[in-house]
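hey so u asked for the seq, here:
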Amino acid sequence: MTTELKHVEVVDAELVDDAPAAGAVAPHDPATAAVLTALDHGAEQHLKDIRLKKTRGGYARDWALWAEFHGWLAERTNDPLPLTAVTTGTLVGFVVWLDEVKKAAPNSIDRRLTGVTVTARSMGAEVPHGGNEGCAHRAQAAQARPRAAGPRPRPGRRHHPGPDPPDEHRHCGGFRTGRRRPRSDRTPGPGHGRRCGRRCSGDRRRHPDHGEHPPVNPRFGGGAPGSTARS
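ran it, structure tokens below
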């Protein structure tokens, strides 16, 4: 295997722009600036109008919590802040207040923060980007922290034990049928009274109540008073 040296020609060149520089952008004249401002306001109003009613209501509740937080903060600093004072400190303090004072659910803190920032921007306030990052870390820490175990949830229908036979007969009007009910009939739940009443009415039709002297089949050696049994 042999290698051969190839001679190449080196050319000195200079990079140039494809197009001449446009220079500084000229400012808009007053008429153009007025049209652009009107379009911006129209776009903001359009975005507000197409927003869902449930979302608007949620943002209003988030802003009410923001106002409550400012009142709580003014009691401790003796210096009330305007609601449009959206800084990194106020946003992180709002998240800490929701977590430790209001005991809000960790997965709702981020949603509250979004409602506050969207409403503040619509009022002309500038929301710092670093504040959102700090609040996100604080919300993640709240979600990762285990909370104290509260009361256990109420068990569902499948976990309820069935009633005892005396309770069963009390629900059926005291009429004892002498047989066990299926568990689906003995388990309280939707339709329990309807199922039990339907069974009891069927038992009464098969075994009517004749008072103190129930009829007896004559073929078994008995009969009702005034009747004659065949021998």
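The mean pLDDT is 70. The radius of gyration is 41 Å.
lmk if thats what u needed
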